[in-house]
């Protein structure tokens, strides 16, 4: 009797999970992003200048209320909108774990300095 109840409970749970998955896939149609996520749309690199690479990246984000598209650990991410408004870029943790973050003098962007001394500069549009 208990084995039969367990079987029915597991069947019910499986059906419930299937229905939730079905609803979720129906709500998120092709091309839509889940709330709080980002994807890279375009990535262009220009290495025409010696010892310098200019990269331009475009991301598409579906941020939650109070968030805006930003950068976290060198990847596009939804961050607190107050960070972007106040231009305190390093608060969104834009650099990788082993890199140091510094604001540019005019607060137009930030630099990520690697342990070997290589510097990556990012400016906001």
Automatic annotation (TrEMBL):
Keyword match Transmembrane: yes
A cellular component annotation (GO) from this entry: extracellular space
Keywords: Membrane, Signal, Transmembrane, Transmembrane helix
BP term (GO), one: G protein-coupled receptor signaling pathway
Pfam families: TAFA (PF12020)
The UniProt record lists the keyword Signal: yes
Any one GO molecular-function label of the UniProt entry: G protein-coupled receptor binding
Membrane-crossing segments per the record: 6-23
Stretches of the chain forming a coiled coil according to its record: none
PANTHER family in alphabetical order: CHEMOKINE-LIKE PROTEIN TAFA-5, CHEMOKINE-LIKE PROTEIN TAFA-5-RELATED
Family designation: Belongs to the TAFA family.
Name this polypeptide is given: TAFA chemokine like family member 5
Taxonomic placement: Eukaryota, Metazoa, Chordata, Craniata, Vertebrata
